[in-house]
Amino acid sequence: MNRNPFYSNKIKALAGAAKPLALATLGLMLSAQAYSAVTGVAPLSVSGNKVLIGGQVGSIAGNSLFWSNTGWGGDKYYNAKTVAWLKSDWKANLVRASMGVEENGGYLNKTTKAISDASNKTRVYTVVDAAIANDMYVIVDWHSHHAEDYKAQAITFFQEVATKYKDSNNVIYEIYNEPLNTTNWSTTIKPYAVDVIAAIRAIDPDNLIIVGTQTWSQDVDKAANDPITGYANIAYTLHFYAGTHKQSLRDKAQTALNKGIALFVTEWGAVNADGGGAVANSETTAWLSFLKANNISHANWALNDKNEGASALVAGASVDGGWVSSQLTASGALVKDAVLNWPAIPANSGSSASSSVASSVASSSSSSSSSSSSSSSSSSSVSSSSASIASSAASSATPDTPPSSGKSGGGSIQLGFLIALAGFTLLGFATRRPTKP
């Protein structure tokens, strides 16, 4: 059978285009996968009095676990299934692991200051790993009222945490839970914080660090009068319990914001400060409105089944999640509704950047197929495909995260783009107009 050489050459050219197209698509997919692995959640950063999410104004909401101390009852909820349920059913974006330090059953021996129960740290790591797996932020909390007495131990602990998780945007360091009212901000809390921050920053240069404030983390105005300087991405702790703390504490928080420091509510309750009492509905509403208006992130105390008003769960509630409404306390039901309906993370934050890379696979493949069927446009197809790659790379970068942020995966991303670029270049040659006989 006689064949027209022109069409025979055309068929060969199209066949030759298959491999470069596959190579280009593979490169883009590798890039998307690598970027997604690095940015399952967007980086948190501080700008003025705001904690930004991927460079965008917003806030996150979730739950604080109870003290991790062995035998205190809350330790049983330090497991992956609980964390996964909070994400899937409550739509929580944040969980706090409250590692008890010097109290009975805690990490350290109060007298010798030596590690006495390392299972506390193991529980914390279980929660951190589960949070990362579920694309949640996680606060690693040095849960103490006397952290300055255990500064060397805190430094060692946070150096270990930073070394283990420095490449994860998910991790937030809370270096002092609640200093007492008699513990002075400027002479005790701040010097302690500066030393611990320096140790963390030597390993992890940019993940958010939260510093407790005087009077059980209420005197944020004192911190605003004498803030920590010389380090980026530092926020300050504000704690409130709606049955006890009312407008006067909101006024104090507003003063701190007006003076330019960023606040993060790592612990709050809908009941009294002692953990008891009924839900203070009107004051809780006022507080949540204040947090929303000022884009302040928060974690509710506490995901536990202890018989007290602050607990989210009734006694005996499952340790693996799956809680129905009857297993939630009045506080738990209120908090679940608040977390479920909290404003979504900004759509333009870095967590969605990988989708822009992934979408370019489809658009670039479509462009390449068009170049194969219309040989006159093959050169422009290569140019537009290369531009698409460059555009994806640009859109994947967040405003506050330079390429040298230290997070892993950058080499994989670059390699993926190089593979894609090579594929599109070869595709351009393969789809040139066949020479007429």
Task: Describe this protein's structure.
The chain is of the alpha/beta class and 437 residues long. It is 45% helix and 13% strand. It is built from 13 helices and 11 strands. The chain has helices spanning 5-38, 80-89, 119-133, 151-165, 185-201, 214-217, 220-225, 247-258, 281-293, 330-340, 353-373, 378-396, 410-430, and strands at residues 44-47, 50-53, 56-57, 61-65, 94-100, 137-143, 171-174, 209-211, 234-241, 263-269, 298-303. Strands 4-5-6-7-8-9-10-11 form an 8-stranded parallel beta barrel, surrounded by 5 helices. Strands 1-2-3 form a 3-stranded antiparallel beta sheet, with no helix packed on it. Helix 12 (378-396) packs antiparallel against helix 13. The longest helix has 34 residues, at 5-38. The two termini are 17 Å apart. 48% of the residues are buried.
Give the % helix: 40-55%
The residue ranges in which pLDDT falls below 50 over 5 or more consecutive positions are 32-38, 351-406, 408-413, 433-437
Largest sheet: 8 strands, parallel, barrel
For the terminal residues, how far apart are their CA atoms?
Answer: 17 Å
Order of helices and strands: HEEEEHEHEHEHEHHEHEHEHHHH
What's the multimeric state? single chain
